[in-house]
Structure formats: structure tokens, C-alpha cells
């Protein structure tokens, strides 16, 4: 096995294997960074926000705002933004909605940053492996053609085996990081849904809806256009 790997590294597929190795290091670094970032941001923690919404619905707005600020998490930040606006401007629900949506978008943008790198690696690694295999096969059959067809079948099989190694390497990189990417994206989607529900509960705790406004879920899936005035 080591002989096959050495042959491939010193052959036509060597650069592809080295590139796949570097890509796997980059994917590992992004994964570690995102996990650390999620832990620091408090992704998935919504106990304080849910408690704050319940207190807010019960009518104790000052205590609800204080409760929302107890825990560091994207949901708590969005909920606290809406509550703070409504405490200061009780009649301006639109302002609270925009501030909460902007805070949520900022949090979601930070959470989603660099996930595209993982997605790109997952998509590119198998194609890179296939490219290495094609290059290796071309090299193997080129040697067969140069020998005029008189070549040891075992040597040809060894060359094909070495060429297929890059495809295996590409899949070995893509498959685990595919599941990592799905897991990280699911955490973002879960927090997005939690923020939508919590903000909506704060805004419409009196039971009065605003059908003329687009759904909050649509707002949180659009890129921010401008920040509302803070004054």
C-alpha cells in the first residue's frame, strides 16, 4: 500500500493528492473555527429568550428585557432588541420589528460565514479525485501504448490501482465534511426558526397581527438593505 501511495505521489496524480490533503486541512480548520464560534455565540441556547418571552407575554416588560439579556445567544439578542425598542417606543411596533430583524440578520450572517467554504470543498473534492484518476489512467495507458501493447498486466493493474487512489481520497475528504456541513447548517436553521417564533411572540403578544407586512421568516431570509435609525 505504501508503495502504491509513493508511486502516486511521485506520478501524475501526486499534485492532486497533495491538493486534496491541503483542502482537508482547510476544511478541518473551518470546522474547528465554526464550532468554537458557535459555542462563543451561544448558538442553540434559547432558554433565557423563551423565559423572557413568557414574562413579556404576562405583562412584566422590564423584567422580561432583563431576562433576555441574561444569556448570550443569537435568539436572546434578537428578542432583547425587540423588547428594548417596545419599552422605549411602545406604540412603534414597526420600529421594533425592523430592529429585531436587523439584529437577527446580523447574527445569522455571522453564523453562516465560512460555511460556503465547507460546501465548496464537499462539492470539489470528489471532482478533484476523479481528475487525478483520469490523469493517472491516461498515464497508465500511455505507458501501455509506448510499449506497443507488450506490458505486464500486473504492472498495468498496479498503475490503475494507483490512479483510483485519488478518487478514494477525494471521497474520503468529501463524505465526512458533507455531514459536518449539514450539521452546522442545521444549527443555523434551528436558531433562525427559534428567532422567528420568539420575535413574533414579542411583537404580537397582544394578539393583534399585521397582515399587510411580509412574514418575518421572509425578512430573515433576505439580506439587510439598511439599518433602522437608532434614535
Distance between the termini: 68 Å
Strand content: under 5%
- H/I helix tally: 9
Which stretches are low in confidence, meaning pLDDT under 50 for 5 or more residues running?
223-231
Estimated structural class? mainly alpha
String of helices and strands: HHHHHHHHH
Question: Using only CA atoms, what is the Rg?
Answer: 27 Å
Count of DSSP E strands?
A: 0
Shape designation? rod-shaped
Helix content: over 70%
Largest sheet: none
- On the 0 to 100 scale, the average pLDDT is 82
Instruction: Tell me the domain tally.
Output: 1
Please provide a brief summary of the model.
Helix content is 77%, strand content 0%. The protein contains 9 helices and no strands.
Keywords:
231 residues; disordered C terminus; 9 helices; mainly alpha
